[in-house]
Amino acid sequence: MTQHQKPGAEPNRKRGRFVILIVLAIALVVAAWGIIERRLHYSSLEKEADDNARARVSLIHPQPGPAERHLDLPANLAAWYQAPIYAQVSGYVKMWYKDYGAHVKSGDLLAEISTPSLDAQYEAAKANYNVVLARYRLAVITAKRWADLRDTQAVSRQEVDVQAANAAAQKAQVDQAQHEVERFEALENFKRIVAPFDGIVTSRLVNVGDYVNAGGGDLNSRGSASELFTVADTHRMRVFVSVPQDYAAVISDKLAATLTLPQFPGRVYKASFLATAQAFSPATRTVTTELELGNEDGSLWPDSYATAHFTAPGEPGVLIVPVNALLFRAQGTQLATVIDNRVHLIDVKTGINYGMTIQILGGISEKDEIVANPTADMLEGDEVKVVSPTRGYNDVTAAPRKNVAPVPRPSQLEEGESSSESGARR
């Protein structure tokens, strides 16, 4: 220790150098840790970017087709018979006797028409008939007298033949006059508007004093013609349904359907096959199919809207997939399968479309794993990441959609069956 060195200075310098070394060491450790952490973050981000670049897909397996097909179609109800009634003579309505909803029998009087002009023509026709008949009788007497003088020299054979021909001509005029009288008699009968069959008056478009035109019905204020009455026989009803072409193969005399109407919720009617058009409409590709059912209680009205619920045999041997699993490309219809996390596209041919699912006629098996939600830009060989399906969406474990047709209560079903049977017996 020198004379000028203070006691304790050396230990302080050593302590300071030690502190500096510690600070430098900490700085080096922090810097190294930052570099390592950035490298770790970079690697993590790289992995995350690679992971995000892979499309997320959920996989499903093709399923067997349904054992039964349920089809709900709109239906229109029509009366068993329905007839618009027009006037056959011109005149003014004298009186109407049946209003809306009236139950009528065949021949019941619905209205009367006043026809003064027709009455006058009828009387003139009868008078003309009497005149022609009198002439004919005189011609017959004259011809007989001339025929009696044939063997004498008083008359010539030519005159006898002329009188006979005149009698024949008068007979023809009598026949003509008689037919004219009968024609007017028929027109006179049309003054009475009667019901053509048992039924219900569903419309009355005429009032007292209205002018009606022969063969054209009631002339309204705009000059167009309409029927006077409409009568419908509703003891049985016809049901018209437009069946799509895909289901036309199941149409036969064994086809049956249940009907539901919005005004009778929960009530079910059973309808049986009656006829089919056996031709498709070029506009809708449907075939008009006619069903029938009894209506003894009168609850069904003509021109009502109904929903027809059909049950047809399915094809469980043909596989089905969700419709949104299909890819529509220039190459055709395709399905995207996944093998070792890589996309493999398969060309397929589709069959019947069930709405939510569709038939695949070939190219896949039940073991294939199909992408349930393929994107439009998905290509052959793309790497994907398989994720669990969203609950209720493309989830094959979810419960299948049931038929929306209500289940008939035993009492209602028996009622429908008895109505159909009694109607058939009728």
Structure explained in plain terms:
The protein has helices at residues 9-53, 116-148, 157-189, 410-425, and strands spanning 55-57, 59-60, 63-64, 68-85, 91-96, 103-104, 109-114, 192-194, 199-204, 211-213, 217-219, 225-226, 229-244, 256-260, 269-280, 286-294, 305-313, 319-322, 326-329, 332-339, 342-347, 350-353, 357-360, 370-371, 384-386. Helix 2 (116-148) runs antiparallel to helix 3. By secondary structure, the chain is α+β, with helices and mostly antiparallel strands. The relative contact order is 0.16.
Record keyword descriptors for this entry:
33% strand, six-stranded antiparallel sheet, 30% helix, 25 strands, 426 residues, alpha+beta
Rg over alpha carbons: 48 Å
Morphology call: rod-shaped
Profile the largest sheet. Answer: 6 strands, antiparallel, barrel
Helix-strand category: alpha+beta
Poorly predicted parts: 396-426
Task: Give a short synopsis of this structure.
Helix content is 30%, strand content 33%. It has 426 residues and is of the alpha+beta class. The strands form six sheets. Strands 4-13-16-15-14-17 form a six-stranded antiparallel β-barrel. The chain has a six-stranded antiparallel sheet with strand order 8-7-5-10-11-12, with no helix packed on it.
